[in-house]
Design goal:
The complex is a heterodimer. By secondary structure, chain A is mainly alpha-helical. Chain A is built from 12 helices and no strands. The chains are: A mainly alpha, B mainly alpha. The interface between A and B is large, with 43 and 39 residues. Chain A: It is found in: Cell membrane; Membrane.
Amino acid sequence: MWQKIVGTLIVVLVLNFFLPRIMPGDPFNFISVEEGSVTVTLTEDQIAHYHAYYGMDKPMLEQFTTYISRTLRGDLGISIYYNRPVSEMIGERLIWTLLLVISALGISSLFGSALGLISAYHARESSILDDLLLRMMTILSEIPDFIIGLALLIYFGAHLKWFPLAGATTAFAVYDSAFDAFRDYVHHAALPCLTLSLSSIGDFYLLSRQSAVSVLTEPYILTARAKGLRKRRLIFHHVLANAISPILARIFMKMGGMLSGAVLVEVVFAYPGIGKLMREAVSMRDYVLIQGIFFYVAVLILIFNTAADMIFKKMKQRGFHEKL
Amino acid sequence: MKSYKIYLAIIIIAFAVYTLFGGTAHQAVSGASLESPSLTHPLGTDDLGIDILAQLIHGGGYSIFLGIFSAGSATFIGSIIGIISGYIGGKIDHFLMAVCDIITGMPQMILLILLGAFLGASYLSMIIVLAMLSWPQTARTIRARVLFIKEHDYIRYSKQMGTPLYAIITRHFLPPLKPLLTLAFIKMMSRSIMMEASLAYLGLGDPTSKSWGMMLNKAMAFPGIYFTPYWKWWLTAPLIALVCLILSLMLLSKEIEV
């Protein structure tokens, strides 16, 4: 496991360093030309000065070693375009993204697994409810998240005008109370959060349905049924208790995918999270910022994946592996 | 229920006919800008006066071929690595699986954005990048299957009789792996199409192409698109086409799975 973590970190660092440097053009060429014109506003001397300032005139290897040692110390450098420390900028934006991802994860895992349990309970009688849910969830889990987002935006945002079209807060708003501020946040986060939840609810549904169906065939369920236990107690006490570990592991595994999904969804809703920052950084050719974001997200995903791995290991020890 | 196959067939035929007879309608201005749907322009025109139906057909072919090429190469790489890893085992297996772990552990969408931004998004580079990112899943399923097949007696006999590795792979491993490979191919195809659409939607696709993601990007970039009636055909047409394509691929894979 350690070897996987170290390996991933090394690949991330290497990619992060070399990718921007093998591409044609550099940020100073980019900012030295005004958008839409051909006149150059930075002289050769100025470009050379900036190269020296950002250490881009040194040999590749030296740049690489300073990059590694700095990154490991937590110093991600200063954004070339915005001229601010990268970790500070990411910190500001990361809160919004995590807010989205965590609430969407909570909603989708809760509703997804509840629906999965209900569906699994009815699956034996080949009911319409199970059939309908299964179809709907399979379709939902296939549609890419930005398309769900666009559809929601068009319908609820543009057509019905229930929700704002962009942003995380009302611009220039002055709140009377903390509750007002909170309401504004929720109002803005509702659609992006709903999008992320909808795109991952199918996953949780299918997983919980599958593991609940396999639990339901166990002899102890038959015993419980024969004892005359009520339906609700059977589902929440016996089935859920035995089906919950794979769902827990999936929550952590899903976290990484959702962070990636959030990038697109944030662009759809112009939500000021890390995804939108990434989009801005790419269009400005801001190497340092892009590297910083990539590093942050990769490390976050690594942490979540390791957590998921640990849960899997625990489950294997308890003999859950055959149900996965 | 088989209607999705008809849909798939329509797209493929439409694209084939369109390219074979040298269609350029997806680039040519053929009407006033932002016309609403009419007989000459069944889905209206965009802001430059280009027919949207022509763009839609062109984009469909673009997406499907991109999916076929990238999923094809990913299945090829994945099956070779999976077989080698499962059959030979030992240190090679360990190393290859570690590589798989690292690639799947990366934030793929963000890596794709990075690569798209830095390497430029030509058709070829897009296919290569998508293939490089998606082979590990196939490799892993194939490896698991190979580990199972390997234990059969006929493989051992054939090895003892001195059958070369190449022949063992093509004669004994590939036939039982075929359904698995077909399934992996279709799943990867829909994933690639989705990824390309997402990238193009972000504006990182091939700017000269008229892929569905690119159409969405252009429509969304139109100032105040929601306050005009244009989104009704300009935005929804590629949206619905994309969803239908992905869903029909899903139904196809479900049919094979069972």
